Amino acid sequence: MRKDTTRTTTTVEGGLSRRKFVATAGVGAIAAGFVPKKVFAQKKVTVKFTLGWLPEGANIYSYSAKQFWAKEGIDVVIEKGSGSAAATQAIAQGKYEFGIPAAPNSIQQAVKGLPLFSLGCFNYDTTMGVAVLPDSPIKTPADLKGKKVGSTLTSGEYPFLPTFLKNVGLTMADIQSISLDNKVREVALIEKQCDAITCFVASALPKIIAAGVNPRVFLYSKHGLPFYAQSLTTTNEYFAKEKALCEAMAMGLAEGTKFALLKPEETIEILFKEVPELKLASTAKAQLEVGIGVWASNYVAKEAMEKGIGYADPAVYTKMTDLIVAASSAPGDKKPDPATLFTNDFVGKLKLTTAEWDKVKAGSAKYALG
Q1: What angle is formed at CA 243 by the lines to CA 237 and CA 47, rounded to 5 degrees?
Q2: Which tens digits make up the pLDDT trace of 208-218?
Q3: Which domain CATH number covers 154?
Q4: Is the pTM above the cut of 0.85?
Q5: Which end of the chain has fewer CB atoms within 10 angstroms, the N or the C?
């Protein structure tokens, strides 16, 4: 993206709605006198952390957080993901102590019985949706009927495609669903190998725009599926055993989030140092600028602004749980109590000033989806 660009010209159906804020206390309890600060300084702890997707602007705060985790004596090994559904399963299986999959996928797996637990919200809209080319005859979601729709089956938005279609008056039988590898999904759309793709817009948009294409996007959130996005996730068992470490991880990620919001250029350089092969692509910096811009514009949410970085509204978790159970539960599944799925105990302590939020808004305004 050129430096003189004043606004991303992506066409989005409607704007991103902000959820009503409900002032409620965080769920969960902290043991009396529990102070995790510097508890790992004497003996370094190493943990594995999975992204929900490939390293990019939408998850870049994970890399800026490493400096804060290191100060607490925590060596965090960050590994790329291949979709939030796969990430949640890997965390539940103990392959990773922590990760940042999309919250809806963690809830979906919890409905299936997997013991997943969120320690904080680090993106307030999944930007799940369907992308089409700007000259496509697909002008509304209903126009997807009979069209080839490409999806990465392990990506977090795919399980909700049937519900999205239902909400716009279609079924899976009405489209030609095509399985695509995550490495070729955006290319398949650009080269017209399919008519549309499902994706997390914040992840796919930088690659598409870098190719000189400004897609039309139909966001799930505008059609009855308002979901939080990336959440710091672990298992219930690990949380019970390692509360101090869980708090330090949440606080470090909050610090990394603040750093990325206020210093996006420095954060991009941190990512290049951590993942140097990314810099080999001529469009890498432009893609990262778009990705971190979209993420930052989404993070200007009432929850974070009023209650602090990482805070999750319990009312939203309740609604997400209800939607997921209604959309994807099967015989034998059990609806979890939303209060058992997350905690606000370790987040909300770090806040930006009004002036800092104004800076974030100004810097990310041209990337806002709507």
Answers
A1: 75
A2: 988 889 899 99
A3: 3.40.190.10
A4: no
A5: C
